[in-house]
Amino acid sequence: MVDEQMVASGQASTEEIRARVDELIAQMTPAEKAGQLTQYFYFKLPPEAEIEPALGLDRDKQPVMVEEVLGRGLAGSLLFVTDPAEINRLQRLAVEGSRLGIPALFGFDVIHGLRTILPVPIAMAASWDPETIERGQAVAAREARAVGIHWAFAPMIDIARDPRWGRITEAAGEDPFLGAAVAVAQVRGFQGSEIGAAEHVIAGPKHFAGYGAAFGGRDYDEVNISDSELWNVYLPPFEAAVQAGAGNIMTAYMPLNGVPATGNRWLLTDVLRGTWGFEGFVVSDANAVKNLLTHGFAEDLTDAGVRALNVGLDMEMAMSDPAYGHLAEALEAGAVSQETLDASVRRVLEAKLRMGLFDKPYIDEDRAREVLADPAHREVARIAAERSAVLLRNEGELLPLDAGSLSSIAVIGPLADSKRDTIGPWVFDYDLDETVTVLEGIRSKVGEATRVDYAPGVRVAHRVYASMFDMFGGNRPEDPHGFDAEAEFQRAVDLAREADVAVVAVGEWQNMIGEAASRSSLELPGHQLELLQAVVETGTPTVLLVLNGRPLDLRWASEHVPAILDIWYPGTQGGAAVANLLFGDVSPGGRLPFTWPRTVGQVPMVYSHTRSHEPENQWRRYWDEESTPLFPFGHGLSYGRFSYANLSLDQTTVGRDDTLTVSVDVTNTADRQADEVVQLYIHQRHGSTSRPVRELKGFQRISLEPDESRTIQFSLGPAERRYWSAATRDWVTEASTFDIWVGGDSTAALSTTFDVTA
What we know:
The chain is an alpha/beta fold. The protein has 24 helices and 26 strands.
């Protein structure tokens, strides 16, 4: 018998863990095995909640059904429970009520925080700082584990190149190199040094694979990606997450090149396990196994379960009536083998043992309250928000503001004082009482010495089709009672005219971004642009704050508003962070993780395109507008000024397996400390295929004091030059001449070359 305390403490060997799993499997019935491979939603929704019909949830019957199967050992995992007492109650049903006493895994969408809300993931990626990202997800993991959650359905590491797609807000942007670095940082933050590490949870990277390339940016729609694009762009973050030790992978909803991802043997077995050596367990997205019927892929529910299990899907996430509930009969009919069924059960049980659930299935509810209230977590959130903000424009150095010279500030826009929108989408266990809005942050910063007036100015804008998340209380924005649109608009303009400076907050309300939140337009919703224009026309110096999870149409603002700061959805401490940025306590250092298009008609637009016919006319492919971005990938300004010099290589000619070192001197020529993100790009001039004009292959975020210089070095080896060639149908590292650029964004001018010989 294996000592389960040794397992929980990480002292048990892999062989000992597998021996304990084998003991359990030998005692289990086919129905119990199928139960371990089934994860149920556990919802207790208020009576007023409007449930999406497509979810197939019965408000009253669903919790009763889940408790009944849990108590009979026929459910391996539950999701959507965050109350520690409730988790303990349900865990007792699993442990004490079932024959073998196998504990349940509790999972949850811990996307950018549980109680302490961090900036949204696209914002964290904009920090270009893996340490900040890892530290943030470690806080999220600590809070989640404290309340009894063992597994996060995160990070979402889909490459996102179409901003119409709402889930870009959960992604790390368009670039596979940056995306892979962010994926690794998040896995380490969630999971720690190993599965079962104290105060950490299992990381579940998603959605495997290609989900971010849906037709037209329409969430859930089909995806067709060339092999070259799949291997070179969409798969690298997943491979990096697997190599970082992720314990779980979640499949995608949609068909990839005609084959549903949840029923795709090539993805789940050949690539994930065969090529990358993944040893964890694979779970479907919600109802994705049942969706194999919707795709016209499976004949019936039993066939859907058989197909999913046989291609390598270990666990089904189901609202109700799971396809895996039919696995026992499929086993008897010979549609699945005992070996295949046991292999999936083994992976799930190993995860539970490694997490220490057999030894300590319950959690300390008093301890949970202490962890959730830890002020150090709020400090991490504030710093993350400060490091994520991107200064897009700062004409005349309007920013930072000098509080001592301002007698009045006008804060304008409904998003400036909306706690729910400050923390952003994909959060459920938040505490709005501790959320700091932009307005509150500014008032706290300047104190009573400066008058701060506020007006929303315009009505809340609404979606044409409601968000499925509106069924959770507080997610649907509303105007204040008795809101007079005309009078409020004029009041906002008057306040701006009388103020020394106007701070206008615009963007999308949080239920307009995220899952099932794709858009056909990138324009500012409602009448926000008209409000901004009216404020600017008063002549008062204007600072524009953008709350967003995707690029929005800022063409007018980029020409008429002197200062634009992208603050994303900055989280629990967002307002405090924004105030520190506005008044110069912190210099903005974030950089864009995507190319910012001028208009929706340009998308998708990426910096790493290949050179085609008449490249000299690339900028005027459209006859009605420049085919250039509004802001390039990697862009971001600072309160410092940086110069680059002395770009050098330790070798100018290397072999295909050799590594060279790139050095560059970076100097802060300003009179204040500031951060810069030093970025390295390469281009392979010739080879078996045409290569992108530039590809990111290195970055470092650094902090420099006034007049400080630092030599930054990058290693550039075969891993950075390797790519999957559509000509050879394999990975290649080719002899060629390579260009190198180093600078502050993807348009960097400082360059040199080197040769790779055969």
